[in-house]
Design goal:
2 domains; five-stranded mixed beta sheet; 321 residues; mainly beta; single chain
Length: 321
């Protein structure tokens, strides 16, 4: 082989080696999803954060990678870059980019800066993790580098609330690729803000396999109840309806009262085919249309474990005679 050809082969091998070496680095941040968005509140408008979550181990090499915020019409408002990699690399680990005001309000140390404050407009906007995952809300009408579908919270994010990705599909206690439908309205709902930086261990856990095979029980249409250990309630809160309207009545604004067997629980309610949304007892609905309806409520305890069998009540509203 001539010296020129040997040199050419050596260069080709060197380039190939560089390409192979670069692949793992390129794969160290791409299995990340936007988990939670908090645009601040009227009382503290600069208290903002965005939380990301891994759904595979070893995705912690985020130094130099960025989150981008967009205004209601799709204009870029800010680009926030992680200054360094994070330490926690376990599956389900979370990372928070936050403003100093949010760090102070929630008592956390952010993994990256969200600066300047005021870049998340609660009435409408979007955020994108690189070009991998985008989420929009409110009145957003612009274009994004990754599909975001219909905006979540079309009326804007309620004051003092955050948007969080649901992990109910598949294993309902674990973030998985199937939890992302590229549709913000379907994937996100309002929750009380609870930023979880990388230093806090993840509470998500794999679904257990019951004796005899099959996946652990999931959310169903039951009214709730049954002995712990044989209905998927072990370690989960139990939701009980304490007050309901008549099963057949004329009241178009029925009120429901409910409780959890675990203190400090929060609740999510649902009517008919709507999505679950944060609520509190007592909950008054309406005015509702005449006809059949079903109300659902489930508790979520302090460790974010959700009652797998929400309490429910079917009723019918009829016209006055």
């Amino acid at each position: 082989m001539s010296s020129a050809r040997r040199l050419s082969c050596s260069l080709a091998l060197a380039v190939a080696s560089l390409g192979l070496a670069a692949s793992p680095a390129a794969a160290t941040f791409h299995l990340m999803e936007v988990r939670e968005i908090y645009p601040g509140s009227v009382a503290s408008p600069g208290s903002e954060y965005v939380e990301l979550q891994m759904y595979a181990a070893g995705q912690n090499l985020v130094g130099g990678h960025f989150l981008r915020a967009y205004g209601p019409t799709g204009s870029v408002v800010a680009t926030d870059t992680f200054p360094a990699d994070v330490k926690g690399d376990a599956d389900q680990s979370t990372l928070v980019l936050a403003s100093p005001e949010a760090e102070s309000q929630f008592g956390i140390v952010a993994d990256g800066p969200l600066s300047p404050s005021g870049q998340l407009d609660p009435s409408g906007g979007a955020v994108c993790w690189e070009t991998i995952d985008c989420v929009s809300w409110g009145s957003f009408s612009g274009s994004l580098p990754s599909p975001a579908g219909s905006p979540a919270a079309p009326g804007g994010i309620t004051d003092g609330m955050a948007l969080r990705r649901t992990i109910s599909p598949g294993c309902e206690t674990l973030l998985e690729p199937t939890d992302d439908h590229d549709n913000s309205a379907a994937d996100f709902s309002a929750v009380f803000p609870g930023p979880r930086p990388n230093s806090v261990p993840a509470s998500e856990r794999p679904c257990e396999t019951p004796a005899g095979g099959g996946q652990a029980p999931k959310e169903g249409g039951a009214t709730g109840g049954g002995p712990a250990g044989n209905d998927g309630h072990a370690g989960a809160p139990r939701t009980t309806l304490r007050g309901t309207p008549a099963k057949r009545g004329t009241d178009r604004t029925p009120t429901f009262r409910f409780r959890s067997d675990e203190p400090w629980s929060e609740f999510e309610c649902r009517l008919d085919h709507e999505n679950f949304r944060p609520c509190a007892s007592p909950r008054t609905l309406g005015p509702l249309a005449y006809g059949r309806h079903r109300f659902w409520v489930r508790a979520q305890d302090a460790s974010e474990t959700v009652d797998p069998s929400p309490a429910s009540f079917a009723f019918r509203i009829v016209r006055r005679r």
